[in-house]
Write a structure and sequence with these properties.
By secondary structure, the protein is an alpha+beta fold. It has a single domain (about 5-110), classed as K homology (KH) domain (GMP Synthetase, Chain A, domain 3, 2-Layer Sandwich), CATH 3.30.300.20. The chain has helices spanning about 5-30, 60-70, 70-80, 100-110; strands spanning about 35-40, 45-55, 90-95. Strands 1-2-3 form a three-stranded mixed β-sheet. The radius of gyration is 15 Å and the shape is globular.
């Protein structure tokens, strides 16, 4: 179960990462539309699992590019939240396919 502090820090990290992806999408990710859907933190706040919704045909390639730029993204995040957090969490990115899954279930129910 997630603590209140984990939830608050997760929302802060989600908001700031969304801003990073919005501002750097054209330069780093070829203009792909990337949305940060969920951020889950470990209890020690040292690791953040970041789930991304990618609106592009090459989701795996975009995720690979994001993963290659993890250190740069973490550094920018540290500059944004450095005064609020003692430790900037390490970032691990995953594709959030819950929307695709929901659409597939909906299509199956229509048949």
């Amino acid at each position: 179960m997630e603590s209140i502090r984990q939830s608050k820090v997760g929302k802060l990290v989600q908001k700031e990462l969304a801003e990073i992806f919005r501002s750097e999408a054209r330069n780093l990710f070829g203009g792909a539309f990337i949305t940060v859907t969920v951020v889950r933190l470990t209890p020690d706040m040292g690791l953040a699992k970041v789930y991304l919704s990618i609106m592009d045909k090459n989701k795996e390639n975009i995720l690979k590019t994001v993963t290659e730029h993890t250190n740069e993204i973490r550094k920018r995040l540290g500059n944004m939240v450095g005064k609020q957090l003692r430790i900037v969490p390490s970032l691990v990115f995953y594709i959030d396919d819950s929307l695709d899954y929901a659409m597939r279930i909906e299509d199956l129910l229509k048949k």
